[in-house]
Amino acid sequence: MNQFDVAVIGSGPGGYVAAIRCSQLGMKTALIEKYNSLGGTCLNVGCIPSKSLLDSSHHYEDAIKHFDTHGIEIPGEINVNLEKMISRKQSVVDQTTKGIDFLMDKNNITVFNGLGSFVDNTHISIDNGKDKPTVIEAKNSIIATGSKPANLPFIEVDKERIITSTEALSLQEIPKHLIVIGGGVIGLELGQVYKRLGAEVSVIEYADRITPVMDASLSKELMKVLKKQKVKFYLSHQVNSVKRSGDSVAVSAVNKKGETVSFEGDYCLVSVGRKPYTSGLNAEAAGVVVTERGQIEVNDHLQTGASNIYAIGDVVRGAMLAHKAEEEGVMVAEIIAGQKPHIDYNLIPNVIYTWPEVAAVGKTEEQLKSSGIEYKVGQFPMRALGRARASMDIDGFVKILADKQTDEVLGVHMIGARVADLIAEAVTAMEFRASAEDIARMSHSHPTYAEAVKEAALAATGDRALHV
Questions:
Q1: Residue 24 contacts by C-beta under 8 Å, 6 or more apart in sequence?
Q2: Structural domain tally of the chain?
Q3: Is the pTM of this model over 0.90?
Q4: Alpha carbon distance 225, 238 (integer Å)
Q5: What's the domain range around 454?
Q6: Catalytic annotation, residues
Q7: pLDDT per residue over 144-193, tens digit each?
């Protein structure tokens, strides 16, 4: 029988990173993956392919809307070749997943393809659907089986016209009217992709604002910008019916006045979040408790009910973010090795890759108010930056929330060009418990988008912003 120090079930960002760190720490490691390609949802049907389509569609939008302003003249009509765009996306995915194969070889990690299920807390059966299941023995196990798109109980997803994010990444035509149920990250990103390519896009959201978990000012600004891009929004609408008839999809919802509102499109993207995936794991046989919500129950060290089995990423509590899963994977590997690592969940950033991008870390204004914490606000508009005007990316702002008494930065909220990268400055500052004054006194190169962070910090320290 194959014996390992650690077996990792699931090869998404949490799983493969955990496996690498275990190997680095001298443990004999196995990685078990149900599908033929490594990388999980993120690399195959999530983060990487969606960003590929976002970039391709952004280039197209620039070409048809902005090139002429830049003095770039292209004779003739500019057309979209969706098949080629999808093909490029797939090539990016293939390159990335092959990179994970390389990392597994480099780190001497044994990869098993098949469905991993517990026999008991030290034995895992791996069934590839062809041969007799392989059973391995592992002193420790890490469950990193991720999540799947969630659904509403009355919606039948046919994966043709009524689709999830997975199918939206490989459509064979540009929708005429894409109805998006859910105004969260995934729905907005994919909605913007197809809006740029020429689709009419309607977003139906149950809450009274889009991206309801983010700071309200970001939600308001993002919706304002997307409305300028002709995306239609229907907030405080509860969907109660989704039916397909041929190539048409009819959606019915009730608004906050109690009125029934009807929508008709050729595609409907169901984007109502994600749910933990534990199907076939046979967790109970190992003493692992799965909650009613489908999450695996863990303690502060991410240990399950079986002390030698851990769980990380989307399958446990907390935000469903690839980088959160990676941090947890590293932490668990180091705990197994006898180290004492730590994660500050308050400092895990959240990003939306629309354009403008949206990024945040730390507390929102709503959270500070509900906690009774006195704070001050410094905000700076992107349009006041020379770099933003030069690139014609003037939408958005940076907002810094700092403790009213100590000046410690408690939260940073951004919307604008490249803020997905810019948020790392805020994470670094907050990790070292910087004050707004600390950031304000740091030199930021000119002209850059990063100057908005300095200016917002100046504004938070007593209305000292220099360029407004």
A1: 107, 333
A2: 3
A3: yes
A4: 24
A5: 356-460
A6: 446
A7: 999 999 999 999 999 999 999 999 999 999 999 999 999 999 999 999 99
